[in-house]
Known about the structure:
By secondary structure, the chain is an all-beta fold. It has strands at 17-21, 27-31, 42-44, 49-51, 58-60, 65-67, 76-77, 79-82, 85-88, 106-108, 120-122. The strands form three sheets. Strands 7-2-1-11 form a four-stranded antiparallel beta sheet, with no helix packed on it.
Amino acid sequence: MNPFKQSWDGETDNVACWVRREGSSQFTVFAINCAHLGCPVRWFPQSQLFMCPCHGGVYYADGSRASGPPERGLFTYDYKIANGQLQINAGQMPSLSNTAKLVNIAVPAKQGPGKDGDCGCRG
């Protein structure tokens, strides 16, 4: 569930992702899907890790592979800041053969998770 819904979000309101604030206007936006078979990963703040419940894939807070069957880190979405809003290019699961298509998911850039590995779900 997107806590920052806008009336103009439309179908993009249903696209899930993890947003990590790296600086005042710098973010890393991860697809929630494990790079192994696409199961949704979950953030565990206690261990500062993303973990996949399906086959044991584990990722560090920066999205890089920690252990398990995935051969790579989490896929990321491109984003931009426009009019003070974080706009995420989402809409399909990114893979090695494609990139996410442009779909705007607007989250106020001043809100969201803080630094130091504090991730938050947006989408």
